[in-house]
Design brief:
This protein is mainly alpha-helical. The protein has a domain at about 35-115: Arc Repressor Mutant, subunit A (Orthogonal Bundle), CATH 1.10.10. The chain has helices spanning about 15-35, 45-55, 65-70, 75-85, 110-130, 135-155, 155-165, and strands spanning about 60, 90-95, 100-105.
């Protein structure tokens, strides 16, 4: 290493412990939530999309907006939407007022499915997250994750990563 090269600011023991615990817990949590939805033949990312659509006034969102919300490349979201579409749970439609854009629309069948699956997911969130935290810890976690999200988004690095994922190989 060159003498002029800045040295990394290494993590201290506490920071390293917290970082490793975060990595382990986040992977375990995603695995547990995914596992509980498998009884419905669904992945967490698919559930998240259906849930977001169900909360919209007309049960529709522009696909580019969904991709940003679920942190997926547009091409990956297109594949996920295709799986949901083949089940009859969503359909793709041109955006009203902007025919270049595409919206994902939750069908009545898809809405019925999300209503049926929601109790499983909520129970899983409670068992795997909420039951382990005090209200104070939960709110602190929410604040911390919001700070992390906004910090990362402000750098634009995720935009670069998603753009790279979308480039043809």
């Amino acid at each position: 290493m060159n003498a002029n090269t800045p040295q990394p600011q290494w993590l201290d023991a506490q920071e390293q412990d917290v970082w490793r615990e975060y990595l382990r817990a986040s992977r375990l949590l995603e695995s547990a939530l995914d596992h509980d939805l498998q009884a419905h033949g669904l992945q967490l990312t698919e559930y998240e999309i259906l849930s977001m659509l169900s909360e919209q006034p007309q049960r529709r969102l522009r696909m580019s907006v969904i991709a940003d919300l679920v942190v997926q490349s547009r091409s990956r979201l297109t594949h996920t939407a295709g799986r949901l579409e083949s089940r009859g749970w969503v359909r793709r439609e041109a955006c009203e007022g902007d025919r270049r854009g595409v919206e994902l629309v939750l069908t009545d069948t898809g809405f019925a499915e999300i209503v049926r699956m929601a109790p499983t997911h909520v129970a899983s969130v409670r068992a795997n997250v909420l039951d382990h935290l005090s209200r104070e810890d939960l709110l602190a976690l929410g604040r911390a994750m919001a700070l992390i999200s906004s910090g990362i988004l402000s750098t634009g690095v995720c935009d670069e990563v998603r753009a790279t994922e979308e480039e043809p190989a």
